[in-house]
Design a protein that fits this description.
It contains 14 helices and 19 strands. By secondary structure, it is an alpha+beta fold.
Length: 409
């Protein structure tokens, strides 16, 4: 068995055979890029499938992907950089930066134009935005009290970021702040907070303070013309099979966005996102560029849900299950955090943290194992099982583990 950095190459190659047989050959995924980093080196990187299925263009390692909600940890880090500068605090009311939200009420009944509300028991705090307990909702939610109103008003689609903030001031909250974990526009709102506190456009802050210092040269809120040939088409999985959702040539990502989304607006490459993950593994620093201190990152990757609860006990939507699994998973300041692998029914360690994007992209960082894993594809509504399978194959490939050594000692 060939091992590098305490991980088996043969077992990682078995993952590639599995993803090919189970997801590529069956026509589910159009492509798959897997990158595994352990103990300071890339121990596995492989690409399979087609970047453009219709044109028969093979996937390349430098392809640019829509990472959607893998934007959220970057936005959360931007906010925490401002916390370190003393310009804002986790316990501050959101209305201290967005004063037009001072009178937000909580939904008690009705629909758009006829809502009834009651005052919240406490104000929405900045920490609520980072951990999705703000009481906001999402246009991608289905069956909730407010998501239909969000879609009718074009929040996150036809509005600008400032326009969304203005529109939300006239809508009730789905839940009282702190009452429920509800996946939402909270991180987009956080981006607006970053812009207002920093006194510059949110996207400029992200570029100047995070992307450029980390050398994330292919990560941005749009794809410039010089890089358009590396940009991926995006597919979607429907009951009738896989269909082309966003062709490369006509994608809105080829121009600066109307709505700058801190919750899902970035495009990136596996190599770029690895630099972000390496910074996380190193406690906030990479190649001499320190973004935050180790204690700040430690705070970000702890469970912040009220009462130490897991997401399963506080969630009010099916999206919670699809994004995080069921029990044994908490939420920190921008990341899901594994609390108990046994309860989550997935391999890993307490304290590993992660998130994924709507088009099937996924990453996790495990400080215990000095491990970071990135998976890239471009398929909306891709099976959640892919992520669990990847965890199983990667962790089963470990031949040396601090947790195993401590158990045997």
């Amino acid at each position: 068995m060939t091992t590098t950095a305490g991980i088996s190459s043969e077992r990682l190659n078995a993952w590639e055979a599995h993803v090919k047989a189970a997801y590529l050959d069956t026509g589910i995924l159009p492509n798959a890029l897997t990158l595994v980093y352990r103990r300071g080196e890339i121990v596995h990187q492989n690409v399979q499938g087609f970047a453009d299925v219709e044109a028969g263009v093979p996937l390349q390692g430098d392809a640019i992907f829509r990472i959607y909600s893998m934007t959220k940890p970057i936005t959360s880090l931007a906010f925490m950089m401002l916390v370190e500068e003393g310009r804002v605090a986790l316990g501050d009311p959101v209305s201290s930066v967005i004063p037009e939200w001072t009178e937000l009420g909580v939904w008690t009944g009705g629909e758009l134009g006829r809502f009834t509300t009651e005052p919240p028991r406490r104000p929405m705090l900045m920490v609520d935005l980072l951990r999705h307990t703000a009481g906001l909702s999402y246009h991608i939610q289905q069956g909730g009290r407010l998501d239909a109103a969000y879609r009718t008003l074009g929040l996150g689609t036809t509005t600008t970021l400032d326009g969304m903030i203005t529109a939300l001031a006239d809508l009730p909250l789905e839940y009282a702040p702190g009452e429920a974990w509800h996946y939402s526009f909270a991180t987009d709102v956080l981006g607006a907070v970053v812009g207002r506190v920093a006194g510059q456009p949110f996207e400029d802050f992200v570029r100047e303070r995070i992307l450029e210092p980390l050398g994330m040269v292919d990560t941005d809120f749009f794809v410039p013309a010089a890089k358009a040939g590396r940009f991926m088409p995006c597919y979607a999985l429907t009951p009738q099979g896989r269909v082309l959702y966003d062709p490369r040539a006509t994608s809105p990502y080829l121009a600066p966005p109307h709505f700058v989304s801190g919750g899902g607006g970035l495009v990136s490459t596996a190599a770029d996102y690895l630099r972000f993950c390496r910074m996380l593994l190193r406690g906030g620093e990479l190649d001499g560029a320190r973004l935050v201190g180790p204690k700040t990152l430690e705070l970000m990757t702890r469970n912040h849900l009220p009462g130490g609860a897991d997401i399963a006990s506080l969630a009010r939507s099916a999206i919670a299950a699809s994004e995080t699994g069921s029990a044994g998973v908490g939420f920190g300041l921008g990341f899901a955090v594994t609390l108990d692998p046994a309860r989550s029914l997935r391999l890993g360690n307490a304290g590993d943290f992660y998130w994924g994007g709507a088009a099937g992209t996924y990453f996790w960082v495990d400080p215990t194992e000095d491990l970071a894993v990135i998976f890239m594809t471009q398929l909306l509504l891709s099976p959640d099982r892919v992520r669990d399978d990847l965890r199983t194959f990667v962790y089963s490939a470990l031949t040396e583990s601090p947790t195993l050594r401590s158990t045997l000692a």
